[in-house]
Specification:
This protein is mostly beta strands. It has no helices and 3 strands. The chain has strands spanning about 5, 10-15, 25-30.
Length: about 30
């Protein structure tokens, strides 16, 4: 399951790996 939140021009996407304990968060700043 991929979770994405958008707040104040910042898009944060959480990509859970095979191991749920290890999650990678990618922040994309929109101009």
């Amino acid at each position: 399951k991929v979770e994405a939140t958008f707040d104040k021009g910042v898009l944060k996407v959480t990509l859970p790996k095979v191991e749920e304990a290890k999650k990678k968060e990618i922040e994309v700043k929109v101009k």
